[in-house]
Amino acid sequence: MESPVCTETFPIDGCVKSTSKKSKTSRSVESDIESLYKAVPQLAKTFRIIDKIGEGTFSSVYLGEARMRDGSRDMFALKHLIPISHPTRIAAELQCLTVVGGRENVMGVEYCFRKEDHVVIVMPYMEHQAIIDVIGLLSFEEVRLYIYHLLKALRHIHQFGVIHRDIKPNNFLYNRKAKTFALVDFGLAQGTADTQIKLLKVVRQKPSQPRAGSSTERRDKAPPKPSSSATAPHQSTAHPPFSSSSPPITTPATRKALIKKSRSIAGTAGASTSRTKPTKVSSLDLLGIRKAQRPVFSERNLNSCTSAASTTKQANKTESVRPGDLSNRRFPSARGGPASVRTQKPQRTAQQTFTCSCFQTDRVCNVCLARKQQVAPRAGTPGFRAPEVLTKCPNQGTAIDVWSAGVILLSLLSGRYPFFKASDDMIALAQIMTIRGSRETGRAAKAFGKAVLCSRELPRLDLRELCETLRGRRPLPDDEVPPVTDCKDTDIDGTGKTPAPLPKGQDPTPGEKPWSGLHDERGWDRVPDEAYDLLDRLLDLNPNSRITAALALQHPLFKGL
Ligand code: ADP
Ligand code: MG
Ligand code: ZN
Prior knowledge:
Layout: H1 24-39, H2 43-46, E1 47-55, E2 59-67, E3 73-81, H3 87-99, E4 111-115, E5 118-124, H4 131-134, H5 140-159, E6 162-163, E7 172-175, E8 180-183, E9 190-191, H6 198-202, H7 252-266, H8 283-287, H9 289-292, H10 299-302, E10 319-321, E11 339-344, H11 350-355, H12 366-370, H13 387-390, H14 399-414, H15 425-436, H16 438-447, E12 451-454, H17 463-470, H18 484-490, H19 529-538, H20 549-552
Antiparallel strand pairs: 1-2, 2-3, 3-5, 4-5, 6-9, 7-8, 10-11, 11-12
Helix pairs in contact: 5-14, 14-19, 15-16
The structure holds adenosine-5'-diphosphate (ADP), magnesium ion and zinc ion (ZN).
């Protein structure tokens, strides 16, 4: 492409019109833009930064316009990484974008700017919609296309030995109208044993310790590193902007301050770390679509206290769940009392035999509480984490991304986003078991060297029944016909409307289910079995038998694409 030229100089504070009626948010965006120009002054020579389009704990993404040599204007996404990101991490993210990106639905990179510890990655701007805004509007055909393109991106990065580790809709940009897709955010990527990305060998399989209160385990952090160079345009793979040879050292105090600073930038404690901030009030809000897209699982419903709770000083060791609560949410669930979940190494050592009293019970004894926690990579967003990640299996591969794609498909087929919502690994595992079955989860865990115990048996659910029930296309499992007023309140379909009346002459007689046989112009009344078959294979609890992205693309569901 044409490279941008410095034909105009944009004043630092002159790029955003200021009016006295600016909202607080808009003013804070202005001041963020101003700070970015100050931190990386060379940006002002090339870009007019227009808006902030994404903000997470670890980066802020801005929309910038540049005048090209041929006089045209192009839009770019400028990702400003927080200064405490580790240099090797930043370089690895860049290397993924430069080597793997720019094709096959993977975002590419155009430039990279650096001043001292501030790094700005410049990518082509892709207009996109947040999944929460469109999920209630999508047709089955659109869902089929979405998953096809996501799998294409995964096949491509997996061929390079790149595990993305944070596959979720926020990181897979989707332009519904243009039918374009782009995988972004390699900030957590890791390499397989034979990865072709050199820098991923350096950051490969680095275990991360659980951090309380963080919904996304993220990249390594590093303090600001004094730097001599001012700019690094035209990033090349061979010359990463930073070297990892001498990791800088910082005092705990500065580190704490830096993290605090980064949190205050994000200003979203407890929220998902990467969220697009809509700049305008969407008309979808008015239709009630946003309101409808609540998770099928949420912690409020799943966190409850049982006798086991008294022993759970460490929340991530044992959690109790009440699947019965889920019946409020209108989908088939196991009935009965609370179930608690825990994971263990399957074999006990001789020492454990004598000292531990909690094996195969739903408690964690003091001996176990005192044990050192097992560490394994667990980066990502809890609701999208694969069972082998949740159980801290040390050998994790590209299959973890395939699981996340399965969670996305489950979300799209059921019309619920997010589907799983949990900040704790054991809650997330309990939610998975509620759908996929507790015995099945235990069996799969055994295959990858873990023991998963659930105090109560949770049956595996039929995926079609589950999705159709959540979409309101099927009655509740116990054949209860919900009152029509209920349909409006729950808005299962995500359309903000009650189910459409049956065609003339087909008024349901008393006792007949009003939704059976409802025609749906978006194709939700004729979802083929292949869709649920693929979903079943993506959500295979055992990573060793889970379908690969390459094979999934050959699935009969994608015939004709
Ligand atoms: P983070 O590491 O903070 O999650 P991401 O790379 O995921 O950062 O970007 C955050 C958000 O910024 C994305 O969810 C998306 O909305 C927006 N974004 C990122 N890259 C682009 C791009 N190239 N074009 C348009 N928007 C982008
Ligand atoms: Mg992201
Ligand atoms: Zn014990």
